[in-house]
Design a protein that fits this description.
The chain is extended and about 70 Å long. The protein has a domain of 125 residues. It is built from 7 helices and 4 strands. Strand 1, helix 4 and strand 2 form a beta-alpha-beta unit. Keywords: Coiled coil.
């Protein structure tokens, strides 16, 4: 194995470790957020339960016979202006499911190679639009173009970063940017693209 290929292997291993670290940061942040939301929902549930108890308390006899009618009767008494009662759970709007996001990490590739990768991803979506690609690249010449099916996220390359910010490790910045992309796009899969052997359409369809 040549020294250049060995170096590429070491760089790829560092990128994969940074990607894992970013993913862990994203999962930890999501866990904290879900715990916060769970506590918020618990307090909201308790408030609604107390409110329902107060509403039912105005008509104990009718509430025992028909609790739904008793609640609606009380609600109409507070809203004489003709407003309709809120829709039930069966009428809640259904959110349109969006395809999952796959993050493609393309580091150390020139503009021509990046264009080829993006073109291959767009062809992949034409065959099977089962995910939304986000490409993180350090190519300063990256151009999104008119087709927004592939989102490009720019990260300064190592040389540029170390020239302007030698006080902070590029790997840390790389990991933090990955973590933010995981969080912002709710990424479910990460693909490290080999600059020496970019994936073909057939490989992306596997």
């Amino acid at each position: 194995m040549s020294p250049g290929r060995a170096l590429d292997g070491m760089e790829r291993a560092r990128w994969e470790l940074a990607a894992m670290a970013g993913r862990l940061r994203s999962l930890e942040a999501r866990l904290v957020e879900e715990r916060r939301l769970a506590e918020t929902y618990r307090r909201e549930r308790d408030r609604e339960r107390k409110r329902a108890d107060r509403l039912l308390g105005f008509g104990p006899v009718s509430a025992l016979r028909n609790p739904v009618r008793a609640v609606l009767h009380r609600w109409r008494g507070r809203n004489r202006g003709g407003a309709r009662p809120p829709a039930g759970p069966g009428y809640a709007p259904v959110a349109t499911a969006r395809p999952p996001v796959h993050l493609y990490v393309v580091i150390g590739m020139d503009a021509a190679g990046l264009r080829d990768v993006v073109l291959t991803l767009r062809q992949r979506l034409l065959v099977s639009p089962d995910h939304r690609p986000v490409v993180m690249t350090d190519c300063a010449a990256a151009e999104a173009g008119g087709d927004h099916s592939v989102l490009l996220e720019y990260l300064p390359d190592r040389v540029t970063w170390e020239k302007h910010r030698p006080d902070r490790s590029w790997e840390d910045v790389f990991s933090e940017r990955l973590s933010r992309l995981y969080r912002d796009h709710d990424t479910v899969r990460t693909i490290i693209v080999d600059r020496a052997k970019p994936p073909t359409l057939a490989e992306l369809l596997r």
